[in-house]
Amino acid sequence: MSLLIDALSVWHGTREAVRGVTVSAAAGRIVAVIGRNGSGKSSLVRAVAGVHAGRRSGAVVWRGGDLMTSSAVNRARSVAYVAQRPLVAADFTAREVIGLAGAVVPRSTEHVERAIDALAVRELVDRPFAALSGGEQQRVVLARAFAQHDLGGLLILDEPFSAMDLAEQHRVAGALQCLASAGSLVLVVLHDLALADALAHEVWWMEAGRLRASGPRESVLSEATLGSGFGVAFERVGGSLRPIVAPRCEPTTG
Length: 254
Hints:
Blueprint: E1 3-12, E2 15-25, E3 30-34, H1 41-49, E4 56-62, E5 65-66, H2 72-78, E6 79-82, H3 94-99, H4 109-118, H5 134-148, E7 154-158, H6 166-181, E8 185-189, H7 193-199, E9 202-207, E10 210-216, H8 217-220, H9 223-230, E11 234-237, E12 240-243
Parallel strand pairs: 3-8, 3-9, 6-7, 7-8
Antiparallel strand pairs: 1-2, 1-4, 4-5, 9-10, 11-12
Helix pairs in contact: 4-5
């Protein structure tokens, strides 16, 4: 396996947010990390990416190297990470944000231009990053990660679709599928289970800091299992998973 997580635990102060997780994944796959709010999804992927500042134990091995002990430079050569709420404090244009991919690992102009095209953000590159919509900002930050990322590497995304409209989601999903097809491993935290069902090859289901289930998408994302785990009914329509979340108004009498 290209990625091996072994007995990984993560603490926020005295609270253990991830509890002894052991799981693995092969390159060339998209893995969706799902679970309720507070289940440990973000803590897990931040620890794998090496950006969790608190206490942790266990091992995270990528292609034979331990990411827990790697230097920032060596880790950046293998792993690109996008946070759930990307922050850019300086008054940068979108192109300058994408160019930050070269801040740790040297990146050519070709890397940057290829990422701009992959995320379809060329019409945004000369605009101030702060003036972009939430979905546009997310695509620009994803382009930064794409520019840093070498094919065959590990790309870790925390809720990348949360601010995007359907057209933006479609573009980004296609770009992620292309990366996986070219040999990269994409680890993506998702709240939208229908999107996880459509996009991922495998699913890791976090619950109360532990790994409740992991495996092929079709085995983890069964309607009955999801219904018991999330407390919401699911159904498959035309082969596609969807939650039944529309409120039911009961008629009143009298």
